[in-house]
Design goal:
Elements lengths: L15 H5 L3 H11 L4 H8 L3 H8 L9 H14 L4 H12 L27 H22 L6 E2 L8 E2 L20 H6 L5 E7 L4 E6 L5 E7 L4 E6 L2 E6 L5 E5 L2 E3 L9 E6 L7
Antiparallel strand pairs: 1-2, 3-6, 3-8, 4-5, 4-7, 7-10, 8-9
């Protein structure tokens, strides 16, 4: 009895190489995963839309828009995932007929293969020029409108425009003028029950010391020309004049007509019954 072949040995011969060959989309997907890239990463790197990347990995080349574009996308995706695009292009030609495409012009056909332009910063030169033009225009417009504001009057013959002068505000402080001599009414107003002494620096300045009947100092200082001081007490006023020649005295409303010499020091005392030199 001869031993025949088993049923398994009688199976028809199968080409294991055909089963082992990966499709284009599967090969691209496996290479992408091996490179640690996502579909978004590949799309961002190649500028191929995400939907087209998914379609190619599923071996659907219809969204590419034709064989020429499909080959371009295959070449771009293969380079992105570090595959040699030549075998994949040969496989595409074998599966879809037509052989290799004719050489394409040197100019790029696919948006995916174009180099992204660098982002330029803002054009500061143009911005500066625009700002300067705006400022100059504003100044010119202001100068042109200035004649309508009433501040200046434009003169036809080119002379300097006349400006209206605003009234100068008066100062609150006015120079003190020499006080006038007491009038008859002032003399009559001097109280009869008190002693009143007015000291005026008519011809210069003089140091003055004035005390009341208790010895309390009423004034101790320099009396400048044109100024005067009035002292009053119920009994008497004691005076020291540093420069009696510069001083004019009125006691109880009456002028003291003593001719004191310039620079003379005088010590005086006046009471309610004066004027008389004490």
């Amino acid at each position: 009895m001869s031993i025949g072949n088993s049923p398994e040995d009688e199976r028809p011969f199968e080409d294991d190489r055909q089963e082992a060959r990966l499709s284009i989309g599967h090969a691209l997907k496996q290479a992408r995963i091996a490179a640690g890239l996502t579909v978004d990463d590949v799309s961002n790197a190649t500028r191929v839309r995400i939907a087209i990347v998914h379609a190619i990995e599923a071996d659907d080349f219809a969204p590419c828009g034709g064989d020429v574009y499909a080959r371009g996308h295959i070449r771009t995706l293969a380079k992105a995932v570090h595959l040699d695009p030549a075998p994949l292009l040969d496989q595409y030609a074998a599966d879809h007929g037509g052989g290799r495409p004719a050489p394409t012009p040197a100019a790029p056909l696919f948006e995916a293969e174009r180099i992204r332009p660098e982002r330029r910063g803002p054009n500061w030169t143009a911005a500066m020029v625009a700002a300067i033009v705006a400022v100059v225009g504003f100044v010119g417009f202001t100068a042109f409108k200035g004649g309508d504001d009433g501040g200046t009057t434009q003169v036809a013959d080119g002379t300097t425009p006349a400006t209206s002068k605003s009234p100068t505000p008066k100062s609150d402080k006015t120079p003190e003028s020499p006080k006038p001599t007491p009038s008859d009414s002032a003399i009559a107003a001097a109280p009869q029950d008190k002693v009143t002494v007015q000291v005026s620096a008519a011809d210069g300045k003089s140091w003055i010391l004035a005390k009341d009947h208790n010895g309390r100092t009423l004034f101790d200082g320099l009396l400048t020309q044109g100024n005067s001081k009035t002292f009053q007490d119920s009994d008497k006023i004691n005076l020291v004049l540093g420069d009696a020649g510069a001083i004019q005295l009125y006691v109880n409303g009456k002028k003291i007509d003593d001719n004191w010499q310039p620079g003379a020091v005088e010590r005086l005392t006046y009471t309610k019954g004066d004027p008389q030199v004490g």
